[in-house]
Amino acid sequence: MTDHLDDTLQRVVDALRPLPDVDDAAKARVLVAVAAERHRDREALPKRVTSSPRRWVVRAVGLAAAAVVAAVLLRAPSTSKEPTPDVAAASPSASAPNARLATADADKGIALQSVQLVLRAPAASQVRVVGDFNAWDGNRSSMSRDPESGLWTATLALRPGRHVYAFIVDDSIWMRDPRAPAAADADFGRPGSVLLVGRP
Amino acid sequence: MRSVAVILVLVSCSAAAASAQQVAFAASVGAELDSATQAVVARELVRARERGIPVEPLLAKAREGRLKRAPGERIRFAIVALAARLDSARGALGSSSTLSELVGGADAIAAGADVAALRALRAATTGSVAAPVGTLAQLCASGVAPKRAVEMIVALLKRNATPTQLISLGNQVETDVASGLLPEESASVRLRGVEASLGSGDRVQATSAPIFNDGRPRTTPQKPTRRP
User: Fold this and answer.
1) What string of pLDDT tens digits covers the 200 residues of chain A?
2) Beta carbons of B69 and A174 less than 8 Å apart
3) Which residues from A are below 8 Å from B59, CB to CB?
4) B51, B140, B141, B199: least CB-packed within 10 angstroms?
5) Which residues of B touch A181 (CB under 8 A)?
6) What is the C-alpha to C-alpha distance for residues B175 and B159, in angstroms, rounded to an integer?
7) In this complex, which of A85, A90, A198 lies closest to B168 when CB atoms are compared?
């Protein structure tokens, strides 16, 4: 009897264990909602701070001291006027902050919007999307292949405005989005695609 | 007092981490560049940091050039030019400008606006000018004359247009121009659209010349209304 219950229980546990599938659009909606929530939290922060004058003093002193420490730390490497190719030649180990996303929250009234990019590349084994929104870092925006359609897709949370992007197929092929207008490239002569976010 | 010590330690760690991350990012960008380009990138990063200019856009530009397999010479030129634009934008917008504001300002300069235009936008609002300078860049790149673009944006800022409305204006004009409309006529029509959404009030002077559907300005005088 006990064994029978254990087996039943095990089957129930096994049935409940797998996580449900979550589509990319849902993930993007969650990301946007979290970003908005953080934005609201930041706006609410001063109200909490003003309720405690002692915290103000402590934080002000802390920030002032922090500024001094940060200035010293950031200034140290800049004392040398010579180029530092040895630093630039070191092995990569970290990615850059996403400039546009990092500052988007600071711009009041501008919420990130979910955008899905799609590419048909049936022969590709890997596709990445690069653009100004990820500081042209392909390591941070891999696309996934939709199992049913075979299309490559990525859903991004972007700030409204004009973005330029392209796809990198199999780490070697630069590819414009065939369904988006071309973005002229005065610097390098290799056009990307234009993505306008925030059209009414 | 203990709180202060804790904050000090935390910020020291985060500042060091940020600096380390920056160096590591520079390393990742520079790893595939030739030595001359590496040297220019490093030099421009040092200069930028000394002048209080953000280095992230310069690193992103180097990475973009590398991804596009551009020759080292073009990458060097692009980075030096971008650093100069960021410097000009900082001079016009102020030393406390945010990264978004400086990048937008640099984009606007690249699209044909001058520092006087950026100063005009800074003077027109006490808030962030990230959206205004971004819109200026977009309008100029779409073919709207910089002076006209500044007039439009300043007028909208005076009427408390939101960043979202400004961004929409830029997107609409770019879309219109891409589909064949003339930049000036699109700008006028779209500006009126934003004005309408702002409600009643004095119309912006720049929109006083109405445009027919065919894009020609109205030349015939309107028939006077008959009084009872």
Assistant:
1) 445 545 655 554 454 444 444 555 555 555 555 555 555 555 444 433 334 445 555 555 555 554 444 443 333 333 233 222 222 222 222 222 222 333 344 455 578 999 999 999 999 999 999 999 999 988 888 999 998 898 999 999 999 999 999 999 998 899 999 999 999 899 999 999 999 998 65
2) yes
3) 96, 135
4) B199
5) 178
6) 24
7) A198
Residue of B nearest to A181 (CA): B178
Q: Exposed/middle/buried for B81, CB within 10 Å: 0-12, 13-18, 19+?
A: middle
Q: Using DSSP bridges, classify how beta strands A152-158 and A182-183 pair: parallel, antiparallel or unpaired.
A: unpaired
Strand order in the sheet with A144-145: A113-119, A152-158, A144-145
**Which of A188, A194, A197, A199 should we substitute to test contact with B (largest number of B Cβ atoms within 10 Å)?**
A188
- Taking CA–CA distances from B1, the nearest residue in chain A reads A58
Confirm if B27 and A94 have CB atoms less than 8 A apart: no
pTM comes to 0.64
User: Using CA atoms, how far apart are residues B186 and B169, in angstroms rounded to an integer?
Assistant: 10
* ipTM score assigned to the predicted complex: 0.74
* Nearest alpha-carbon partner for B19 in A171, A15, A166, A76: A76
Q: A166 by DSSP, 3-state: which? A: strand
Mutate to test the interface with A, among B100, B140, B165, B169 (most CBs of A within 10 A): B100
Nearest CA in chain A to B139: A162
